[in-house]
Amino acid sequence: MFNQIRLRAWSEGLRSQPSLPLRVELWNGQRFDFSPDPPCVTVRVPRASALRYLLSPSLYKLGRAYVEGAIEVSGRANDMIAVVNALAANSLAGNMRGVLPALGLARLSGMLGLLGNAIGGGHTRQRDAQAVRYHYDVSNEFYGAWLDPNMVYSCAYFENGNETLAEAQLKKIDHILNKIGVRPGHRLLDIGCGWGALAIRAAQRHGARCVGITLSDNQARLARERVERAGLTGQVEIRVQDYRDVGGQFDRITSVGMFEHVGVRQLPAYFRRMATLLTPDGVAMNHGLTSTSPDSHGVPHGGGDFISRYVFPHGELAHLGTVIKAMQEGGLEVRDVENLRRHYARTCALWTDNFEANSERIKGLTDARRFRIWQVYLAGCTHAFTHDWISLYQIVCGKAGRDPAALPWSRRYMYAQTTGS
Asked: DUF7884 domain: which residues (predicted)?
């Protein structure tokens, strides 16, 4: 009875906000519609015990409720993004701060949780390897069902805004290789090489000799197969290796979507290792997610706890200022910074579309629980990047203290060849 009273008060409060194409269904058939129009998203509470997730919500509680099947959500992904947008706006006003986590997290962004785990310690080789394998070793078929054909799992680059996902991912790789000036014979290290797309492209198009490293056995296996099919076995080497164990010297180094695994406190050591591996006139790029909190604080309402448990164990994001400071402490000079937040919002929207369009196939590639986790992880990313909750920067750097006469006068060279086959 007490919960019913609280539920009625909660419902009346939500109805006082602008209308939402949303329905909440209870186990007893009772419905709450929040718009005169037909609902595009329905949240179903199948038993009375699950009411607590609506009445006393947090990102962790609601995310867990959805993943574990305590609440159910149905509706089209794009409609859900629209609902999340409206709920987010309303949750910032008055006493409705609980509305967003109460209803939006059924598919809210897993990316957000990366912001909530800046605990700094514990990034050992073994622990980092376990975290990476948990996330990436679902199966190659799983990722292939919603990524582009090259299976690039990072922010794409939309030069004109109308590219397909496959075109934009290829342009992203070319954009990176142009920025760092890869030349024939250059030795390139790709830290966190994924399924090998960047290393293969650098070898094919620029004549580089590449080493790609990953901690995922699944990624390494498929990447090696792709290298062999491309006829690049003598030019591209794929290793299962921690960045701390790499030796030698490299003319160019790329790190794309990897440094989020490093840990905020470990960033100076990470960049110091990168500087050690660079030749005196070498160039490196770090492409990665950043917190928009100047203090690298996490998302409220327990979002970090949810993602730490379900999506990305031990992931941490630093603010851009923290990253640049860590680079300088590691002996690197920042030469160029580009914000690609808008590009990641678009990338995540296309990933979400692919995931939903291939949902039946994906359900056959994993269990229902993990399927729901990835709905949470993907569908809300569009909202997160659109509204500057998290961001993405490409940072070009080189060894500190070098003669600037060796550097180009302008940035024109970066955009000369962003397209091509």
From this structure: 10-90
